[in-house]
Amino acid sequence: MVAVLTLSACGQPEFTYVRDKAGTTYFKVPATFTQLDAYPIELYLSGDHPNSQAALLRAQRVWSTAFDQAAEPSVNHLLGSADPFVYATVHQLTQEQRDSISLNRLRDFVLPVTEQVRLLYLQQAVAAGQPPMFNRFEAVKDEVLSLDAGARGVRVRFNYQIGNDIQTFDHTAILDEKGATVSVMLIGCRSLCFRKRAAEFDKIASSFKLLRLPG
């Protein structure tokens, strides 16, 4: 990962600039966010055992990072925090994934968003005899992104009740022009926090872009 700090007039860093390890995806976050190792998030989302072959192969195909603005930063804040949390990941798709990718798959890349995947999630929770973590889904925004050079993407904003709190998520997912990689940014915090700071989060999300490398 490449992270570059730009100094403000008073000598303090204003933003952390981030690129993935291949240099193809770029974004910036305020320097007040603390960067975290996102590997525990990958294990949680995939369900892979850390010593499994699946986890090893995933590590070769997936880059990710996370930023937390809480006073005590933690990867556990991905799914519930009164403070902003940013998770970003870039996936090198397998051939099977390339063949099945769609705008709906981009919407559901991290959390269940479409009606079909939300229903499947609830069915799996019932079958496992466990109460679902995500409840009372509310769609706030759904936008198909018009991008250069044949890349395509979506940006969706939605609410979930997690425990006693309503959490708002802003999810951007971009499929590159070759259909080879998916780049995702997920911004989240409690709904009251999100409404107060929506303009700030829009700036973070709008900085999330694909870069064209020479050659």
Question: What topology does this entry show?
Answer:
Elements: E1 2-7, E2 13-19, E3 25-30, E4 34-36, H1 39-46, H2 53-61, E5 62-68, E6 85-92, H3 95-100, H4 103-107, H5 115-127, E7 135-146, E8 152-162, E9 165-175, E10 181-190, H6 191-196, H7 198-206, E11 209-210
Antiparallel strand pairs: 1-2, 2-3, 3-11, 4-5, 5-6, 6-10, 7-8, 8-9, 9-10
- The total count of helices amounts to 7
SSE ordering:
EEEEHHEEHHHEEEEHHE
Query: Major β-sheet, in short?
Result: 7 strands, antiparallel
| Sheet/helix structural class | alpha+beta
Rg from Cα: 17 Å
Poorly predicted residue ranges: 1-9
DSSP strand count:
11
The chain-level mean pLDDT equals 91
Strand line-up across the major sheet: 4-5-6-10-9-8-7
First-residue to last-residue Cα separation: 21 Å
Overall spatial form: globular
- In percent, how helical is the residue content? 25-40%
